[in-house]
Predict the 3D structure of the following.
Amino acid sequence: GAGVSQSPRYKVTKRGQDVALRCDPISGHVSLYWYRQALGQGPEFLTYFNYEAQQDKSGLPNDRFSAERPEGSISTLTIQRTEQRDSAMYRCASSLVAGDEQYFGPGTRLTVT
Amino acid sequence: GQNIDQPTEMTATEGAIVQINCTYQTSGFNGLFWYQQHAGEAPTFLSYNVLDGLEEKGRFSSFLSRSKGYSYLLLKELQMKDSASYLCAVRDQSGGSYIPTFGRGTSLIVHP
């Protein structure tokens, strides 16, 4: 079956612009997670959802970052007024239930110029 | 939160055995995962331990000692394709969250 997909795979944007990153989880997976991963580091937790409810957003760096999953399936991570320090690989993962083994998407490489 | 420690890099020879260690400090341990991540790709699940002991899955095994806050991933009969980063992730339920926290990963280089 289809795995986790993310779009776009690459995004280059100018400082100050807003970006929206999309994640399409595995069908039937209750939990959806957003991570940021720097080169040579493990994934850094940002936020996660069970169904459409955002359960934990403690990892979001500041209020420029937000996420939603309105129908309990596809999720969007939005970064407003992007800054160069936001440049990173943003990964989405899903799992059958919270805390279970996670299936990761290919990521979106965001570059802020 | 958790404090997860893994070696940054290891090298090994094709055909050999390598052990990648992970130590952690957590107040509400609730499971440990190992993931493999090839360069430029997404992490993929390898193993899960929640009870003490060894879990074997083909060439890969994972061990857990909860009292010592210690796990290792054992890779046997190393192949070149095993060159990758290996991520240890610990689930801690003390804060009410079941979300695993990832270590920084161990980069394994397998040479002929």
User: Anything to note?
Assistant: Chain B touches chain A at residues 30-31, 33, 41-45, 48, 87, 89, 91, 97-105, 107 (CB under 8 Å). The mean pLDDT of chain B is 94. The two ends of chain B are 40 Å apart (CA to CA).
